[in-house]
Amino acid sequence: MKNCTNPVFTTTSTNNQGEGRTFGSYYVHNNMWNNDNGTYTLGACNYDNWYEVAKQPDGTAVRAYPNVHKDYDDVPLSRIQSARFAANTPRCAGCIYNVAFDIWINNNFDNELMIWTENWNQRPAGTQVGTTTIGGKEYQVWKSGGVNSPGGIFTYVSVTPQLSGTMPLQLFFRDLEARKWIPANSTTWQVDYGVEICDTNNTEQRFNFTDFAITES
């Protein structure tokens, strides 16, 4: 397995202005959008080989989402088929985080689809509305906010941790359409994969991301 030991880009920040680096059509982002006294160091060897070293005091709110993503300009969801992924996480005592895909849908980030591949002591937004099986994997299904309107967050939490594989994104889009949570002609603005960090028990913890690539039709 790849492990980024000689990064071509590094950045350390303690504020909400986390930097990033473009690698071809992908962007690796030290996204500290809600930091509270945490320190975040991102090192990237490539878009599919990077790490985050985080030290975050106690808390349950999401403080940062370091990620790799690809931007789109209102591209039909039907174009996005799947994505390879792989991550190695610390699973530390007292830590709270989730490793997840984060996909922004319709009209400049109206709705948010999250697919949690690993959950470590975190609770999704909203209410659990059931379970479903997609691509042979079982997921809890959570919903927060509007359906077919701005502000809706739809979260699929893998019951069994998925540390690597190929995520069948198109099947999730079809499930959202079948539930009538998004229109059949929906579009996407961004596809992300990274870790939502709430708490590292005020200790330095390293998260390694060692594969990522989006397949389009």
From TrEMBL:
Keywords: Carbohydrate metabolism, Glycosidase, Hydrolase, Polysaccharide degradation. Belongs to the glycosyl hydrolase 12 (cellulase H) family. InterPro entries: ConA-like_dom_sf, GH11/12, GH12. It holds the Pfam family Glyco_hydro_12. This is Glycosyl hydrolase family 12. It comes from the Bacteria.
